[in-house]
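Quick question, first post here. What does this chain look like in 3D?
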Amino acid sequence: MGRWVLLAALPLAFLGERAGLPGVVVFFLAALSLLPLAGWMGEATEAIAARTSPALGGLLNATFGNAAELIIAAVALAAGHVEVVKASITGSILGNVLLVLGLAVLLGGLRYPEQRFSTETAGHLATLLTLSLLAFALPAIFDLAERSYLNAADPKAADLRYSLAAAGVLIASYLASLWYTLVTHRDLFRSEAPAHGPDWPLAKAVAVLLFSTLGVVAGSELLVRHLEAATHALGVSPFFVGIVLVPLVGNAAEHMAAVAFALKDRIDLSVEVAVGSSIQIALLVAPLLVFLGLVLGQPFDLVFENPLELAALAATVLIANSVLRDGRTRWLEGVLLLGVYALLALAFLLV
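> Answer (accepted):
Ran it through. Tokens below.
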């Protein structure tokens, strides 16, 4: 019932826009409507995946796991908010690893003295997380080198060419990792947990996925249209909205799922949801936006020029690898993850 109440925010947002309500009100109504829609998208995907083969089900979950974030970013990109899109990518990675995993480890750790997960899975995720950091660091280094040492005639064009090539490599690497975990070495990553998606008929799952996708598109357009009004009313920068607020909306369903798993002593699933989602954002969603930018006529490269973003990503990868390396968690590690997130959020607010 609660979801339907939140969903009512979407028609209210459209009515509010027509009635001339302040943009910040319409912005928050649209944001609220995205919470249940993103959750339904995830559940519909899981239901469809449960009725297919394990390999195809895993591919569906990987492909649509961050569909809400991709739609929000695509709408913002089409509207020309390139820096907000880049900030939302960084914010999704930070939010999933530091905030989501931090909450899961803390709350799970308060109920269970120690929680364990597969070191094989942890090592695989840590490697991909490190690759994710390189995916954002190398384009920035390339941009710095061509501007400082190579004197490129058109640095932005060179950045875009490099980003297109890098995007192809990242997508290929991500697909290879899926093939590795779902096909050639699936026995190493097989989970003993029962399916946690809803037991829906295939037709219902497809209908819910279509309905929620259309809803996310509509809500995202409203959100983006009133982005500037919201930032002015709140006294924050579009960068802060992109890196903190937008990821919180798009990742709400994953936040709740990861914490719920930890409270059931399934921290392994919490780790897969939180860290796996961050990896997917870096190696699949961000590269797809590079190609989508060409289609939309809004060039989008992988050069993150704000040094604070790169420093935040580096700090996130370092502390995540530290937490993941031994295959066990305790509540204090959750506090440390949340502490790092709070420090970064304050820095982004004041920058």
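The chain has a mean pLDDT of 85.
The CA atoms of residues 146 and 284 lie 26 Å apart.
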